[in-house]
Amino acid sequence: MGRPRTNDAAVRERLVACATEMFATRSQESVTVRALATAAGTSTAAVYTLFQGKDGLIREVRDQAVAGLFQDLTAVPSSKAALEDLYALAVAYRHWGREHRHLYAVLFGGAQSFVPSTLVGDRDPVRPLVAAIDRAVADQILAGDTTLIAVSLWVALHGLVTLELAGSLDGTAAETAFRSTIDAVLRGWATPAAFPGLRRPDPAP
């Protein structure tokens, strides 16, 4: 009986799937190459042949998470209304996180955390968000530093999605919290002309 193949597409896919779940639910140190291979029904040699070891497998999982979020956010169509586009991007971010809970955990706090300001080339998943904020600032809809606005919006989104994934928010409560929180963040950065009376003018020096 011949030795089973350790480098075909099916084995690679199983290893990535098992690694995604394990890295999302366990500490990185507790996930060994042997544990990964056993979960995927293959040998430890396959991990080294396909990914050059555990670190390579971590990178593959992270790269898939980055690519998936980037794909969903870039698929959001743009309109003439900057605030509507930002809200649509927030909705897409939330949807991706809820549909890919293990990838989300790996990307934002699992085996290898992803810092929003870290560049990952042309496929940086925060680029669509930053581009929309830049446009809103240029149109004098939002006022402030683009990076600061992006971070504050991401903090709100991450908190909301994390609470949903943990089961602390669900149903109507989750929907209401999402809408009101994102609306509050966007209004907080809005110019007085965009939302009259909802944002106090900056105090005089």
Protein described:
This protein is an all-alpha fold and 205 residues long. It is 63% helix and 0% strand. It has 9 helices and no strands. The protein has helices at 9-25, 33-40, 44-51, 54-74, 82-99, 101-107, 127-138, 146-165, 171-189. Helix 2 crosses helix 3 (44-51), helix 4 (54-74) runs antiparallel to helix 5 (82-99) and helix 4 packs across helix 6 (101-107). The longest helix has 21 residues, at 54-74. The chain is elongated, with a radius of gyration of 21 Å. Mean pLDDT is 84; it is low at 114-120 and 197-205.
Distance separating the two termini: 82 Å
Helix proportion = 55-70%
Contiguous runs where pLDDT drops below 50 for at least 5 residues: 114-120, 197-205
Structural category: mainly alpha
Radius of gyration: 21 Å
Note the beta-strand portion. Answer: under 5%
Number of helices: 9
The major sheet is characterized as:
none
Question: Which features would summarize this protein structure in a list?
Answer:
205 residues; mainly alpha; 63% helix; 0% strand; elongated; disordered C terminus
What is the fold's blueprint, element by element?
Elements: H1 9-25, H2 33-40, H3 44-51, H4 54-74, H5 82-99, H6 101-107, H7 127-138, H8 146-165, H9 171-189
Concise overview:
The chain is 63% helix and 0% strand. The chain has helices at 9-25, 33-40, 44-51, 54-74, 82-99, 101-107, 127-138, 146-165, 171-189.
